[in-house]
């Protein structure tokens, strides 16, 4: 049973132990990923969250995949990460080469001060925690980062399990910062604070000039993505390799 736009076809949703973890069953039949693989997840709480997403679909109407973030991330882990783990590691870690936190404004002064106050402690944390010192620049011109720092952050990314990588990549891509994503994964930073850091410039503009509907919708989508990635990691118990 793959995730697609279709009418609800099941009455009961349950979770059961399975080889390697737990599975969700619809009318007694185990769910499969879009690629047809068994959807077996490593923790019971994640299975329960996925089961809840299926159970909350309207009894009469179409299934809404956009409301099933845990299902989507679990399927991504199984269908994508397990078959191309190295690529997902590299795709995630490459954000360190142009991490959002390293590119600062040169004006106005209050924005510059705010960026330093919010972003610099996170870069300092990455330097202390991973030995990954990243260089900061003003403007958008690319600034190369120390090779040793990029290697250290790649190793930090690679320390996640396949399921953990799915959540970490989701966070990294949403925020444009592998440092922010790792800070959430390590419980150094709350998801709400990570979102605020990622959208510091946009939130500053809203304070100055007010909201517009397009910007508000974009921020809502981003907040939903950040919350989903963080919750997925929480349900995995952080899913770190031993």
Descriptive labels:
242 residues; alpha+beta; ATP12-like; ATP12-like fold; 2 domains; 4-stranded antiparallel β-sheet; two-stranded parallel sheet; 10 helices; 6 strands; 8% strand
Question: What's the layout of helices and strands?
Answer:
Blueprint: E1 13-18, E2 21-26, E3 29-30, E4 40-41, H1 44-55, H2 69-81, H3 85-93, E5 103-104, H4 109-130, E6 137-138, H5 147-158, H6 162-175, H7 178-185, H8 191-198, H9 200-209, H10 213-235
Parallel strand pairs: 5-6
Antiparallel strand pairs: 1-2, 2-3, 2-4
Helix pairs in contact: 2-6, 2-10, 3-5, 3-6, 6-7, 6-10, 7-8, 8-10
How would you characterize the overall build of this protein?
The chain has about 240 residues and is an alpha+beta fold. It has 2 domains: about 70 residues, ATP12-like; about 150 residues, ATP12 ATPase (ATP12-like fold), CATH 1.10.3580. About 55% of the residues lie in helices and about 10% in strands. The protein contains 10 helices and 6 strands, in the order ββββαααβαβαααααα. Strands 1, 2, 3 and 4 form a 4-stranded antiparallel sheet that branches. A two-stranded parallel sheet has the order 5-6. It is globular and about 60 Å long.
Measured on Cα atoms, how large is the radius of gyration?
Answer: 20 Å
Contiguous runs where pLDDT drops below 50 for at least 5 residues: none
**How much is the average pLDDT?**
94
Q: What proportion of the residues is helical, as a percent range?
A: 40-55%
> Architecture of the largest domain, CATH level 2?
Orthogonal Bundle
Task: Tell me, briefly, the overall form.
Answer: globular
* CATH homolog superfamily of the largest domain: ATP12 ATPase
Distance between the termini: 32 Å
Quick one: biggest sheet? 4 strands, antiparallel
Strand percent estimate = 5-15%
Q: Class by helix and strand content?
A: alpha+beta
Q: What's the helix-strand series?
A: EEEEHHHEHEHHHHHH
Please write the CATH class name of the largest domain. Answer: Mainly Alpha
Continuous helix count = 10
């Amino acid at each position: 049973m793959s995730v697609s736009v279709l009418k609800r076809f099941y009455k009961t949703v349950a979770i059961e132990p399975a080889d390697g973890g737990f599975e969700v069953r619809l009318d007694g039949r185990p769910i499969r990923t879009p690629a047809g693989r068994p959807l077996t997840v490593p923790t019971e709480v994640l299975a329960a969250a996925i089961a809840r997403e299926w159970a909350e679909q309207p009894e009469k109407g179409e299934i809404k995949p956009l409301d099933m973030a845990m299902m989507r991330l679990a399927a991504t882990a199984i269908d994508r990460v397990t078959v191309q783990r190295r690529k997902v590691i590299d795709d995630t870690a490459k954000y360190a080469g142009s991490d959002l936190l390293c590119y600062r404004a040169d004006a106005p002064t209050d924005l510059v001060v705010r960026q330093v106050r919010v972003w610099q402690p996170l870069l300092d944390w990455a330097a202390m925690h991973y030995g990954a010192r990243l260089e900061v620049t003003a403007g958008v011109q690319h600034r190369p980062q120390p090779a040793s720092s990029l290697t250290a952050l790649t190793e930090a990314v690679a320390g996640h399990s396949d399921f953990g990588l799915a959540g970490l990549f989701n966070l990294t891509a949403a925020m444009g910062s592998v440092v922010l994503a790792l800070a959430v994964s390590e419980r150094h930073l709350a998801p709400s604070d990570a979102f605020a850091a990622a959208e510091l410039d946009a939130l500053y503009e809203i304070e100055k000039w007010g909201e517009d509907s397009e910007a508000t919708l974009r921020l809502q989508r981003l907040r939903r993505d950040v919350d989903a990635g963080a919750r997925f990691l929480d349900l995995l118990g952080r899913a770190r390799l031993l």
